[in-house]
Design brief:
By secondary structure, the chain is of the alpha+beta class. The chain has a single domain (26-279), classed as 4-Layer Sandwich (Deoxyribonuclease I, Chain A), CATH 3.60.10. It contains 6 helices and 12 strands. It has helices spanning 2-19, 47-61, 73-82, 167-184, 207-212, 216-219; strands at residues 27-34, 65-71, 86-89, 102-108, 112-121, 140-148, 154-161, 191-196, 214-215, 242-247, 251-257, 274-279. The protein has a 6-stranded mixed β-sheet. The longest helix has 18 residues, at 2-19.
Length: 280
């Protein structure tokens, strides 16, 4: 009888704590999405044919935060205007303003609040527009401190796109990102690093990330092992190069690549968006 009574009161206590939000885990849905350069001459896969499908995908998936790669300023503006509740930040890699591709952050103002953000260049001179090492293009990383409204918890977020040509630029770029996190994440907040890393899972370029953080594709209880770069359906070119890394979170229930068609578009980009759910 004593055991039954004790169990009863423990159950009542747990139920009360849960009702007050004391033990309910706070979850965060984050997405990495290479939106495909808006000026690319892709025929019927060009941005003009895909823009509506991108908005439908965002509305359907409703991520709290999206890291956008290859976005031009007008693509950022389009998302801000038509994806209800989302705002965007980021600067062009070529001039630190609007020129060139943006490592953009789109965030759902209904669920999260942007506290601070900035951009640095993956180069020997990260504080100004610059080409790094053997890179073919200027490359950047955009960071932000973001607050999850429901739980009040904050996290440190980084979105990047490593060079597609320079092996040294990829290696040094990852090392610089990890160094910057050490300096900028002064409150030791949970960390998310995401993006098109132009590296397959076995590439040693990813070692600094694997040492400090967890690849959500490998960590998730339910995961997706298919390729993330779809090459517009040319399966011989498909590969896994898009990642979401995380550290300081309790668990990752789900990682998935979003292959669902929107507005009858089989491919909304030449990359599938990848999405992870993280528990604080």
């Amino acid at each position: 009888m004593k055991k039954i009574i004790t169990t009863f009161f423990l159950a009542v206590f747990a139920t009360a704590a849960f009702a007050q939000g004391g033990s309910k885990p706070a979850s965060l849905d984050i997405m990495s999405y290479n939106i495909r350069y808006g000026d690319a001459k892709d025929g019927t896969n060009s941005w003009a044919y895909r823009l509506g499908a991108t908005i439908e995908m965002i509305k359907d998936q409703s991520p709290d935060v999206i890291g956008l790669q290859e976005a031009l300023s007008y693509q950022m503006d389009f998302i801000k205007e038509y994806a209800d509740g989302y705002k965007t930040v980021g600067v062009g890699r070529d001039d630190g303003k609007k020129k060139g591709e943006i490592m953009g952050i789109a965030y759902n103002t209904k669920t999260v609040k942007l506290s601070s953000w900035g951009t640095f260049w993956l180069s020997e001179t990260p504080d100004k527009p610059s080409l790094g090492w053997d890179g073919a293009c200027r490359r950047t990383a955009t960071w932000a401190v973001i607050k999850h409204k429901k739980s009040g918890k904050k996290f440190f977020f980084v979105n990047t796109h490593l060079d597609h040509v320079g092996a040294q630029a990829r290696k040094k770029g990852v090392e610089l990102i990890m160094e910057k996190i050490e300096k900028l994440n002064k409150d030791n907040l949970p960390v998310v690093v995401m993006g098109d890393l132009n590296s397959t899972p076995e590439d040693p370029v990813l070692a600094p990330l694997d040492q400090k953080l967890r690849d959500t594709r490998k960590w998730a209880m339910k995961t997706d092992e298919g390729p993330t770069y779809n090459a517009w359906g040319h399966s011989e070119s498909a590969q896994t190069i898009d990642y979401i890394y995380a550290g300081g979170f309790a668990s990752c229930p789900v990682f998935e690549a979003i292959r669902k068609p929107y507005l009858d578009r089989k491919f909304i980009s030449d990359h599938y968006p990848v999405k992870a759910t993280l528990i604080f």
